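ok so I'm stuck.
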Amino acid sequence: MADSAGWSLTESDPGVFTGILNDLGVRGVQVEELWGLDPDLLNDLEPVYALIFLFKWVGNGDPATMDGKLQEPTGSHYFAHQVINNACASIALLNAALNIHDPNVHLGEELSNLQAFSEGLDPGTRGWTLTNSEKLREVHNSFARSDPFHLEDHRPDDPTEDAYHFIAYLPIGDELYELDGLKPKPVSHGKIPVDGGKWTDLARAVLERRIATYPAGEVMFNLMALTGRLSRLEHRLGELETKAASAAEGLSGEEEAERVDVKERVDNIRERMKDWETENALRRHNYIGLIHGLLVELAKQDKLAPQIEAAKQKMKDRIAEKRAKGEMMDED
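replied:
not stuck anymore, here's the structure
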């Protein structure tokens, strides 16, 4: 795999992933964080198009003993390899988004063009097509935390540092697939139950088995869902409000209660998305100039040196207090 080639690390955050999709022109999909795979929780998020899973990467392992089997789906699908470092978040996200076939989801011009251009290409070439997209790299990097001292491209490899990786789980045809950009092919996890079961039921079992392979107490996992819940709720709210506006028909008591509930849920989701926009704006902002300006002004007013001395004294007091309790604390 090539080096990061100008791609920054991405946080595992639903606001960041939703922002990436929005900036690429995708409409009708949001990313929500999941704290579990409880059926009621997943039902509330319906429709769930895909799951994005972050985990500590320990290598691809032996294909003979891996969970599932490497297999090309028989139906139409999109799968791209991760060919450079730091791009796994966007690769997992796009491998998921480009397999959504729902008339309520619109990919936008950029991704529709990439998808059309990639038609018939092998996964490796698709990976290079994505990572060579200036628009995609620009959007991806725009959600990196601002750091004027960022030396990611020149940082030496640290064999003791943990590496983390994003992959996607989603239904393709009648099977559950795992799309891992570091594997040569999609991984099939079997047929989706047809007796009233959902693909997320099978995904839950697969994820539980995967998590169980890690040491007890390992908590460095994160799970997010690509969902069209907001579109579903907005559509239902529109139906209820249209009926409410009809003088001839109106709403029953039960329907009015549903309208109030649906409107509250829509408002809550929209409010959370506004909060994400604020967080993303703060994430992108470089505060070094502000901090430098404040320090310079404090120095001009002869207030900086006393603050430094006060901080040193506070640290000495903390050290003395710790030592009095028999606790160790370094002075540096």
